[in-house]
Amino acid sequence: MTGVLVKISSVLTKIEEYIMAILMGALTIIMITAVIYRYFLKDPITWAGEVSIFLLIWTSFIGGSWGLKYGTQASVTFLVDAVADDKKRWIRMAQDIIMLLFLGILIAYSVKWMMLPSMLIQKSSALQLPMWIPYSAVPVGLLFAFVHILTHLVTRIMKKEELFLKKPKGGEGK
After folding, report:
1. pLDDT-derived band at 77, boundaries 50, 70, 90
2. What confidence tens digit (pLDDT) does each residue in 11-55 have?
3. HSE-up of 43 (CA within 13 Å, CB side)?
4. Number of C-alpha atoms within 13 angstroms, CB side, residue 33?
5. CA angle 168, 169, 173 (to 5 degrees)
6. CA pair distance 52, 61, nearest whole angstrom
7. Rounded Cα gap, residues 164 and 122, in angstroms
8. Which terminus of the chain has fewer Cβ atoms in its 10 Å neighbourhood, N or C?
9. What pTM did the predictor assign?
C-alpha cells in the first residue's frame, strides 16, 4: 500500500508542478500585457484582473498542496524539537491525523458549497465564466493535499519515511 500511495503522490506532484508552471507563466504574460496595454497603449484589458485573480487562486491552492508534500511551509517546531527523537515520529503522526481530519472536513464543506444551486449558476463579471471553475481550486487543492498527508502518515507508520520525504529539486524540504 505504501508504494501505491507514494506513486500516486509522486504523480500528483508532477501534475502540480506542471499546473503551477503553466499558471504562473500565464499570469506573468497576462499581467505584463495588461500593464503595457493600460499604461502605454491607453487601452486597458478589461478581463486581465479577473483572470489574474483566478490564476493566483489556483496557483495558491495547488502550490499549498505541493508545499505540504515537502513540508516547506513555515512552522513552529519548538515542541517537536524538545522531545526525544523516538517520540518525534509519534508527534508527527498525530499532526498528520489532525491534518487529515481538518482537510477531510474542508473538502466535504467545499464540495457541498460548490454544489449549491446558486454557485452553479453564478458567473464572473468580466468573462461570464461559470464561477465553479475558479472556485473548484479549493476542493482540488485540498484533495491533493489530503493525498500527500495520507502518504506521509502511511510512510511514517510503516517506518519508510525515506521513500517519500525527499527534498524537491532546487528547494528546501524535509
Report:
1. confident
2. 999 999 999 999 999 999 999 999 999 999 999 999 999 999 999
3. 1
4. 13
5. 30
6. 14
7. 40
8. N
9. 0.85
- CA-to-CA distance for 84 and 68, rounded, in angstroms? 24
| CA nearest neighbour of 47 among 32, 59, 60, 30 | 30
- Cell readout for 171 is 528547494
Cα–Cα separations (whole angstroms), residue 123 to 69, 73, 130, 132, 161: 33, 33, 4, 8, 44
Q: What is the DSSP string of the chain?
A: -HHHHHHHHHHHHHHHHHHHHHHHHHHHHHHHHHHIIIIISS---TTHHHHHHHHHHHHHHHHHHHHHHHT-S----HHHHHS-HHHHHHHHHHHHHHHHHHHHHHHHHHHHHHTSHHHHH-B-TTT--BTHHHHTHHHHHHHHHHHHHHHHHHHHHTT-HHHH--PPTTS---
